[in-house]
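=== Per-residue structure ===
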Amino acid sequence: MQVTSDENVFRRSHSTHEARWEGVVVLQLRHIGKGPSARPDERGFRDRGNRTLTQLVIAAADAARDKPAVISRDNDYAVSFGELKARAQSAAIAMASESGIDDSALTVALMTAVPGLAVAGPKGLADTLTAIRIQAMMVLAEPQQV
């Protein structure tokens, strides 16, 4: 997945012992303020501001499953919203979650999808969760194609 010149890149890094984790979030700022609010769906998540991160990830996957949720610093791997949702669904099933995808399932999905995240510690996880929230809100702010 290539980062184009008209996309702004937000980088966060965190070192823990010998492991270094860096995440890149592609912020498509040219879309801020354009387009409708996130489309209402069968889950009833109408207000983006009140959605949990899990709800944002599900909505972003439904709206644009191939858009990146997390991109490595070197652009050598990316985790799309669709892949993240699928991994979270698998984790929810494995954990016998009655409510479907929840925050625990999303965290497990991230730990298995993002190399080095587990050893990045709480700060690395917090940075990743913040980056995914921003990225999901950017996806949902884009005009929907019909």
Remarks:
- Helices lie at 53-63, 81-94, 103-113, 121-141.
- DSSP finds four helices and four strands in the chain.
